[in-house]
Amino acid sequence: MVSSTLTTSPALIPELIDDLPNISGWEADVQAVTSENYPVFLPTTNLRLDDLSATFAIALHMHQPTVPTGYNGAPIGHLQYMFEHSGEGDNHNAGTFAWCYSRMGDFIPELVANGCNPRVMLDYSGNLLWGLRQMGRGDVLDNLKRITCDPTYQPYVEWLGTMWSHSVVPSTPIPDIKLHIQAWQHYFAAVFGWEALARVKGFSPPEMHLPNQPDTLYEFVKALKECGYRWLLVQEHSVETLQGEPLQDKHLPHQLVARNSSGETVSITVLIKTQGSDTKLVAQMQPYYEAKTLSRRSLNGISIPPIVSQIGDGENGGVMMNEFPPAFKQAWHQMAQNGGKSGVLGVNGTEYLELLEAAGVKSEAFPTCQAIAQHQLWQRVSPENTTPDAVAAAIAAIQQENPNFHMEGSSWTNDRSWVKDYDNVLTPMNQLSAHFHQTFDPLLQATPESSQTPITQTPRYRKALLYNLLLQTSCFRYWGQGAWTDYAREFYQQGEAAIG
Fold first, then answer.
1. Ranges for the Glycoside hydrolase family 57 N-terminal domain (predicted)?
2. Would you say residue 3 has pLDDT above 50?
3. Residue 354: how many other CB atoms lie within 10 Å
4. Which of 139, 285, 426, 458 has the fewest CB atoms nearer than 10 Å to its CB?
5. Are the beta carbons of 47 and 345 closer than 8 angstroms?
6. Do residues 165 and 127 lie in contact, with contact meaning Cβ atoms separated by under 8 Å?
7. Rounded distance, CA 151 to CA 149, Å?
């Protein structure tokens, strides 16, 4: 295991409590660990910024929702459902999906043993990690632990945080945004350990969905920073310059500025995921080949290599199942043949940003951006007159003039709304969230911090929180009306029963 670099070293925490995932109860420990600000990759990286002409970073997104199809409607992972109903649809691919979730644990050691210098970022939802444990696939988790915790392989692999239950941020009730983030951190620490959690500094939002409603975006960025995240991956067309124009150089890090309806601002570093067919681009290692067409840039008077950032489903579709493994390995072998330490190379996001900082490039030097369509809004609301009423009036006026204007945010696709026509999911989702907070927030405020058993460690709280987060899973809208909205209704009823 990696030797301890934490100044605080909490005791190990259980993965499961009463057969439910450990998603709350250790908030103080999570906060202490994620607040550690030491360099993550800089002490171990074998790259030198001066030797790089251009870089690329790829992330693999993995998710399986939780569905109420177990015994008596118990929640189980959808992968387990696929194995148990192999005759339905594409469920015969369940074994291949499971292999895809595990295979980086084989690919990275193989490439390193063969003299390659690979990099990969991993984004696994809390649902998936829990579902693998539920169905007895500890072998998959153990394979991932090898590349996460073994110091031989840890420098090549970066985990990205995400929302625990794959909730799209723009339609997540604001009080639940931080709960999702913290729930994922809890469960990740329970599976991989506190040292591993301390190294998770980048965040991957589900469906690459970035809110543009000012208060939602502000609370999202604020929660990320409070939870110890240093940077966020965003889709190219989900952001704009502060003048409302497309980004001038998508291959540079940016500073995302979030301003709420009260005039408060907060910012976070973002890496820009380029547009295109996500899965196909990652499967064919297109970011590597695009990086080969780029050259160094000057930022704040310092020469740096640009970065091509891309994320795609790590398991979904024939292109990822079949084309990705040989393309992934071929690219790293090609780089190794050229020396593997200079020219165009792969990096992980935090590694790249730490190399820039060590070279004197501070985040304040990055170009600024904001969420798409906010320029139209801020043109009408002056900084000295930023109030909730002024912002609401400006949004209403713009929508009156332009029916296509919306504050639903932007995701990897512009042809899908996560809000329109889904009142049958969003209404109970908001009702359950409101009931959850009406019930537990007063108890949390009334309980002293010195209490031996925090409210968040009680079985009732944990179960209620679980169902509140599960109901917000994007799949209950992504897959349309029918069985998936029925699943949402069942989780709503189980959540209400859990709250009592």
1. 99-238
2. no
3. 21
4. 139
5. yes
6. yes
7. 6
**Whole-angstrom distance, CA of residue 210 vs CA of residue 169:** 7
**67, two tokens:** 């569905």
Contact 425, 477 (CB under 8 A): yes
* Structural contact between residues 160 and 233, judged by C-beta atoms closer than 8 angstroms: yes
* Phi-psi region at 390: left, alpha or beta (left = phi > 0; alpha = psi -120 to 50): alpha
Strands 66-67 vs 76-77: parallel, antiparallel or unpaired: antiparallel
Annotated domain spans of the chain: 16-369, 373-401, 423-499
b/e map 278-299, b = 16+ CB within 10 Å: bbebbbbbbbbebbeebeeeeb
Record: fold of 16-369: TIM Barrel (3.20.20)
pLDDT of residue 421: 46
What is the C-alpha separation between 370 and 401, in angstroms, rounded?
A: 22
pLDDT digits over 177-218, tens only? Answer: 999 999 999 999 999 999 999 999 999 999 899 999 999 999
**Which one, of 198, 222, 220, lies nearest residue 32 by Cα?**
198
pLDDT-wise least confident of 104-118, 140-154, 263-277: 263-277
pLDDT tens sequence across 452-476: 678 999 999 999 999 999 999 988 8
Dig out the tokens for 444 from the structure: 């949390």
Measured CA to CA, the distance from residue 241 to residue 239 in angstroms comes to 7
Percent of the chain exceeding pLDDT 70 equals 93
Q: State the amino acid at position 60 in one-letter form.
A: L
CA distance 177 to 216: 9
Sequence-distant (≥ 6) Cβ neighbours of residue 20 within 8 angstroms: 462, 463, 466
- Amino acid at site 183: A
CA-wise closest residue to 412 among 281, 236, 269? 236
Short-list 472, 490, 466, CA closest to 426: 472
Return the structure tokens found at 126: 């809390």
* Cβ–Cβ under 8 Å, residues 301 and 60: no
Query: How many other CB atoms are there within 10 angstroms of residue 390's CB atom?
Result: 15
* CA 46/CA 208 separation, integer angstroms: 30
Residue at 220: amino acid letter: F
